[in-house]
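Section 3.1: Structural characterization of target chains.
Under the original work plan, the team committed to producing a structural model for every single-chain target entering the pipeline before any wet-lab resources were allocated. The record below documents one such target. The sequence was received from the expression subgroup and is listed exactly as submitted; it comprises 541 residues.
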Amino acid sequence: MTEVSSITSSKDRDVPTYMGLKGSKLNTAITTLCGVGFLLFGYDQGVMGSLLTLKSFRDTFPGIDTVENDDLHHSTIQGVTVGIYEVGCLTGALSTMYLGDKYGRLWMIFSGCVIMIIGAILQTASTGVAFLIVARIISGLGNGLLTATVPLYAAECSKAKSRGKSLCIHGSLITFGICISYWIDFAFYFTEKFGEVSWRFPIAFQLVFPLSMVALIWKFPESPRWLMGQSRPEDAAKVFASLYDKSPDHPFIKQLIEDIRVSLHAEEKVGGNKFSLKNLMKQGDRKNFHRVNLAAWSQVMQQICGINLITYYAGTIFESYIGMEPLELRILAACNGTEYFLASLIPIFVIEKVGRRKLFLFGTIGQCLTMLFLYVSMEMAKQNKPGAPIGAAVLLFVFNTFFGMSLLSLTWLYPPEVSSLEVRAPTTAISTACNWGFNFMVVMITPISFNSIDHHTYLIFFGINFCMIPVFYFLYPETKGRSLEEVDLIFAETPTWKPWKAVHIAATMPFLHEEDKTSDMEKFKGSFELVENGDDSSKNT
């Protein structure tokens, strides 16, 4: 693959530039590009929420109308129609296991956008349930490529001290996309007298995001760490130089290249630097199996905590289970999306201060208690206790707050952080596929669960969140302020079959400074040479 981004030299210093940008301006541009991808992700998730109860939408797709027909059959068809999108996303994400490292980050993002454009056009033109299902599968394929690649690209281009902040910005843009979709749904609710435009335009509006990304993607640099994996150190040095606003010959840039070279050398020693399922599923000194489990389960827990109960079915819950009028529910759903977005802004300012672990625990404990109180409120509402429906509606806002401050962003940040360069793309692909797979499961069973056990559904999610608390506490090490190569060191020092030790090692291992980084990385390289010679006893005690 040839370098597609033009590189010029600034007049004042020998620093490569992209679109005339370098340093913080280029980092901001990359964050913005990736942010559009997350904005698209959020919008596409949220847009169906209020449309499901819109009369013109229900008239076009009577097979998924659960307002007039609340039987199990219609609930199941609605779950399939909404959730089949996640099956497409899962398939698209898994494809990056094999395609991501072969074609690079930019090609994957470009391909995902093109597929999403096709899917959005087909969704807008849908005339029946079968047509809509096929269109949503196609959109899902494209979004799967995007969600498996964009966080990876962002992490590989970010500085260690700002990586968390950058990914939290992206997480907040997911909620901003959801917020936009709710308000557009609300605005077009008043156009229902004009027919199907009230739901076709909100679906078509998502085309703005992938079209803008397609127009700009080739002006951006490829991931420098992917370039190193393709044995292109000179190109990688140019990208790093532009990102850090330094000359490619600057000692700091040379040190970055050397750190990655040492990491790649270590990977070659323990099984080659090309992806294979064998390398992904084995422990060894790289602890790949340990790391892919941390990545995958973070995404699984994000989905099974109950957030999509609210994101996809907020309108249905407000109308069918809390008893609100159509206009009221749309106002409340839009306000819910707005509050969700505002809550997601908070971790941008605290992620690099409090770290990942504390936010994981804070959010999960809050979600656990909120689900319990939701059950109590709905139980009281069933008994016609005054104020109970309002209390339940408020608690939906509270749950969004806890989730938006924690799992929303963290589970997109964590997988590329904890995975090694050798398997970073497939690890992110697997974790993203887990996200979409369990997303589908939750979206599929939610209408069925409410139809069968009603508000007792909240108790299930209470139990799930309760079980998540010790998992985050005992098994998830802190990565705040660490370079991706430092994270490699943490897992290299973790005993093979004692994964809980990684938490202590991450908390006590000194941060690497420029003057001692070389010796530590050489020590890391040496540890792999010991493994190659069969001396791994020190790592398994």
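The longest helix spans residues 326-382.
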